[in-house]
Amino acid sequence: MSTSPMALLEGGPDGLTTRIVPITPPGFELRVAFGEGYERFKVTPRWEETPSGSLPVYEWVAHVDPKR
After folding, report:
1. Helix/strand/coil (H, E, C) string of the chain?
2. What's the rounded Cα separation, in Å, for the pair 61 and 30?
3. Are 18 and 6 in contact (CB under 8 A)?
4. What values do phi and psi take at 17, rounded to 5?
5. What order of strands is seen across the sheet that includes strand 20-22?
6. What Cα–Cα distance (Å) separates residue 55 from each residue in 6, 26, 64, 65?
7. From CA 43, how far away is CA 49, in angstroms rounded?
8. pTM score, two decimals?
């Protein structure tokens, strides 16, 4: 079991199946590798109950292609 803080991801592409991810440091933008680039998520003031406990919700902002 990870001791890192975790977050719940909301939104983003349908193919992004992992929705509970570690965050370091908590409270800032989160980038999740996906396809040829990554998905950007921003922290919200909301928390949600999950099987992993109460987690902060991070909301999808955009896909970033590193080739651009």
Report:
1. CCCCCEEEEECCCCCCCCCEEECCCCCCCEEEEECCEEEEEEEEEEEEEECCEEEEEEEEEEEECCCC
2. 10
3. no
4. -90, -25
5. 20-22, 6-10, 53-64, 37-50, 30-34
6. 7, 11, 25, 28
7. 16
8. 0.86
The residue whose two tokens read 């199946």 is 17
* Cis preceding linkage at 66, omega within 30: no
Rg (CA), the chain: 12
4-26 pLDDT, tens digit each:
899 999 999 999 999 999 987 77
What type of residue sits at position 55?
A: L
What six digits make up the tokens of 22?
């570690």
